[in-house]
Write a structure and sequence with these properties.
47% helix; DNA Primase, Chain A; 4 domains; four-stranded antiparallel sheet; DNA primase DNAg catalytic core, N-terminal domain; alpha+beta; 19 helices; 439 residues
Amino acid sequence: MRPEDIINEIRNRVDIVDLVRDYVPSLKQAGRNFKACCPFHSERTPSFTVSQDKQMFYCFGCNKGGDIFTFLREIEGLSFPEAAERLAQRAGVEWKRDLDGSLSAREKERTELKKLMAAAAGLYSKFLFSSAGKTALAYLRDRQLSDETIERFMLGWAPGGDAPAARELKSRGFSADLLFMAGLASTRDGGRVSDYFRERVMFPIRNPAGDVIAFGGRVLDSSEPKYLNSPETVLFPKRRTLYGLYEALPEIRKKNRIAVVEGYMDVIACHQAGAAFAVAPLGTALTSDHAHQLSRYSAEITVAFDSDNAGRNAAVRAAEIFMDAGLYVKAADFSPAKDPDELAVKSGAAELEKRLVSGMDPVEFKLRLLAPGGADKLSSQDKARLAAKLLDTVARQRDEIVKSEWLRIIAARLAVPEEALARQLAKSAPGDYVRPERP
C-alpha cells in the first residue's frame, strides 16, 4: 500500500471528535460542531471548534487548525512520523517509520534516544531488585510504597562502581556518544566514561505519551545534591515537563482536576493513596509553560505544596501563575502534616483526597500566610500594606463574580470598606502591588 493510501486509511478510521475528547474532556456538541476552551492557549470563553463532518479542528482565538495529524502533533509536540505511528496504532493500521523513504536525522536521533531511555529505565529497575539495590528497595518500602507502586512508576536504582549502567547499555549496542547525548553518562579522569547517576534511587520521567524522556535521582545519604535531574535533551524540555503527568492523565480526565505537588515522592504518595491526579514540577519553580501544559487537560488546579513557610510562599506564587493562565485555583493546607506524603501516612487516603479537593481560595490562603494571627490588631498602615498584597492576587482573577466575592472576604477580614478596596483595585493591574516577603 502506498504511503498516501495508508494516511488516508488512518484518517478514515480515526474520528477527530474521539481523538480530541481524549485530550479535551469538556468538548461538547454545539449544533453540527463541537466546542470547548482551546487546549493550545488560555481562555474562558470557548473558541475551539471541531467539525465531525469535515474531520477538522479550528480555534478562532489562536488560529490553530488542521486534521487529526495536526492536532496530535500540536498537543503532544510530535513529528509527523511520530504522530502517524501513534494514530496508526489507534486505527489498527500497520505503519512503518520509513514509509516516506527516510527519516530526518533529528527524527532518527529522537527514536534512538527513546530506545536508550527505555532500556535504561528497565536496567535501573533490574538493579533495584538485585543485591546492589537492597538498601534502596528497603528505603522505598520503609516509605510504605507497595511493589505495585514501585512497578507502576518504574522506580529503580543506579549503583556506584565502575560505570555499571554505561557498560551494560554499551554492551547492548548503544554508543557512548548516545549515552552522553541522553545525559546518562559523562567523562572523567582523562576521558573515562562514567555513569551520570550513581548511588541514587531513580525516578523515570515520562512524556504524556508514556515515553521515558529523563530521570530524577535521589541519594540515600546526606550528600549533595539530594536530587539530580537529567540535563535537557531533545526529548526533555525541563521547563515544560511535569513528573507524573502520564500516570495521572486517566484520573485527570475522569475527575477534571489536577493537584500540583512539590516532588517525586509527593506525587507517588498521592497516587498510591488514590488521589491519582497529582503531578509535580522537576525541582524548579512552577513556570507559565507548566501552566499552559496543564491547561490542556483541566481548568481546575489545586496547588498542594509543603506546609512550611517556603512551601506556602511557593504555593502563592504558583497559584498566581495559574490564575494568569486563566485557570481556577485552590490551595491545599496539609498542616499539621508537612506534606501530602506525611498526611497520607498519618491520616489516610480519604483525608488526603479531601484536602486536595476542598482547598482554599488563593486569597484566603495568602491572607493566612501573611497574617497568621488575624488582622484585628494591625494598624491602618499595616492593613493597607496587607490589602495591597491581597489585591495583587484579586487582580489576577478573570471571573468578575469570584473577584467580587474575594473583595468581600478581604473587606470583612480587615474591617475596611469594600468600596475602598474596589477603587484601589481599579487603579492597578496584576503585578503593580508589592509581592509578599519571603521568609
